[in-house]
C-alpha cells in the first residue's frame, strides 16, 4: 500500500479554488491510476446547469481525461480503485445533501462526510477536497447556524488530517499547511 | 495582551487552550456569549471569549459606533495596565455580505473598528484558520 495523500482546498466564491484543485489533482496523478471528478452539487435549475457546463468544459480542455461521477450523498461509496486521484467538489454541497436527507440522521452528517473522505483517500491514494469559506458572516440563528458550525467542524477535521491545506485568495494559493509544487 | 481572531467555528478556543496549556495552568475564562459584563479579574491569565459580543453590548448601550469604540478603547487601556496576561478571542464577522438590517451593519462596522484597536493594543495577534494559526503581529520583547 502506497502512502495516502489528502489535500484540502478552500476559498471564497469565484476565488479560483476549483482551478487550483484541478491543477493539484493533475500534479498528483499516478500513471497507474485514473483521474476522478466527483461532483456533489445537485442540478436544481438552469443556472446550476450552466455552472456545471463551464466546470466541465475546463476539465475537457485540461488535456487530461477526467471521469466525472455525480455523488450527492454517502461520499465514501464512490467506486474508486487503488492509485486513483479523486477531486471532490465540494464539501458545502455535500453537507447540504447530508443535512437535509430524510433517511439518515443529520447529526451524523459530519461523520459521514469526514469518514467517507478519509475512506476514499485510503482506498484510492490521493484525494483533493474543495470547500467554501463561509465563516465570516454575522452568525445566523437556527438551522443556518447549525449548518455553519458543522461545516466549520468538518473543515477543522479535514485540515487536521490533511497533508496540505490551502486557502485560495483571488486566485493565489496561500499554503496554510504542508507544501505544494509550483503549478506551471 | 494577545488578540486571537478568525472566522466562526475555526477552532480559535481550542487553539488558545492548547497554546497556553490551559489544562495545566490556572486561568480565568470568561465568555461574553454567556455574560455581557466584564468580570472581576482574579487570575494571572485571563481569557475573554466572544469579544464581538462585548462590542455588540457596548453598541446597544451607547447607541452609536464612535462612542462604543471610545469606551472599548478605554477598556483595552485599563486591561493593559493590569499586571496579567490577557487573551482576547473575537470572531471576525467583517467579511460576509452586507447585512440587510441597519443595526447589524453598524454592529459589523463597530466590530471592525474595535478589532483594529484590539490588534493595536495587543503585543501579539493571531488569526486561526481551521485550527492553524497565523501570527500577523508580534512585538519584540
Short structural description:
Chain A is built from 5 helices and 7 strands, in the order E-H-E-H-E-E-H-H-E-H-E-E. With 184 residues, chain A is α/β, with parallel strands linked by helices. Chain A has a 7-stranded mixed sheet, with helices on both faces.
Give an account of the 3D structure.
The complex is a heterodimer of chains A (184) and B (141). By secondary structure, chain A is of the alpha/beta class. Chain A has one domain (5-177): Rossmann fold (3-Layer(aba) Sandwich). In chain A, 39% of the residues lie in helices and 22% in strands. Chain A contains five helices and seven strands, in the order βαβαββααβαββ. Chain A has helices at 17-28, 46-60, 91-100, 109-124, 143-161, and strands at 5-11, 35-39, 66-70, 85-89, 126-132, 164-169, 172-177. The longest helix of chain A is centred in the C-terminal third of the chain and has 19 residues, at 143-161. Chain B is α/β, with parallel strands linked by helices and 141 residues long. Chain B has one domain (2-130): Rossmann fold (3-Layer(aba) Sandwich), CATH 3.40.50.300. Helices cover 40% and strands 24% of the residues of chain B. Chain B contains four helices and six strands, in the order βαββααβαββ. In chain B, α3 packs parallel to α4. The longest helix of chain B is centred in the C-terminal third of the chain and has 20 residues, at 102-121. The model of chain B has no long low-confidence stretch (mean pLDDT 95). The A-B interface holds A 10, 133, 135-139, 148-149, 151-153, 155-156, 158-160, 165, 167, 176-177 and B 7-11, 14, 91-97, 99, 104, 107-108, 129-132, 134.
Amino acid at each position: 500500500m502506497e502512502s495516502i495523500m489528502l489535500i484540502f482546498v478552500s476559498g471564497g466564491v469565484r476565488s479560483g479554488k476549483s482551478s487550483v484543485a484541478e491543477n493539484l489533482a493533475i500534479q498528483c496523478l499516478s500513471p497507474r491510476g485514473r483521474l476522478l471528478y466527483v461532483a456533489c452539487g445537485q442540478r436544481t435549475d438552469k443556472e446550476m446547469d450552466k455552472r456545471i457546463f463551464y466546470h466541465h468544459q475546463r476539465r475537457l480542455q485540461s488535456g487530461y481525461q477526467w471521469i466525472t461521477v455525480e455523488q450527492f450523498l454517502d461520499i465514501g461509496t464512490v467506486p474508486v480503485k487503488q492509485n486513483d486521484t479523486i477531486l471532490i467538489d465540494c464539501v458545502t454541497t455535500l453537507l447540504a445533501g447530508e443535512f437535509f436527507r430524510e433517511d439518515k440522521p443529520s447529526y451524523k452528517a459530519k461523520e459521514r462526510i469526514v469518514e467517507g473522505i478519509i475512506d476514499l483517500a485510503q482506498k484510492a491514494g490521493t484525494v483533493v477536497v474543495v470547500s467554501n469559506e463561509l465563516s465570516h458572516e454575522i452568525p445566523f440563528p437556527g438551522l443556518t447556524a447549525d449548518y455553519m458550525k458543522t461545516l466549520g467542524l468538518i473543515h477543522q477535521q479535514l485540515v487536521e488530517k490533511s497533508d496540505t491545506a490551502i486557502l485560495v485568495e483571488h486566485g493565489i494559493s496561500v499554503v496554510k499547511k504542508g507544501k505544494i509544487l509550483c503549478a506551471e | 495582551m494577545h488578540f486571537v481572531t478568525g472566522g466562526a467555528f475555526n477552532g480559535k478556543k481550542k487553539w488558545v487552550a492548547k497554546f497556553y496549556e490551559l489544562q495545566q495552568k490556572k486561568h480565568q475564562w470568561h465568555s461574553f456569549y454567556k455574560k455581557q459584563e466584564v468580570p472581576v479579574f482574579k487570575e494571572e491569565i485571563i481569557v475573554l471569549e466572544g469579544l464581538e459580543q462585548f462590542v455588540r453590548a457596548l453598541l446597544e448601550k451607547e447607541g452609536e459606533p464612535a462612542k462604543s469604540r471610545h469606551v472599548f478603547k478605554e477598556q483595552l487601556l485599563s486591561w493593559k495596565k493590569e499586571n496579567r496576561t490577557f487573551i482576547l478571542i473575537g470572531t471576525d464577522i467583517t467579511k460576509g455580505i452586507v447585512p440587510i438590517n441597519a443595526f447589524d451593519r453598524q454592529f459589523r462596522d463597530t466590530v471592525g473598528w474595535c478589532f483594529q484597536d484590539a490588534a493595536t493594543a495587543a503585543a501579539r495577534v493571531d488569526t486561526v484558520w481551521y485550527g492553524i494559526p497565523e501570527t500577523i503581529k508580534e512585538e519584540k520583547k
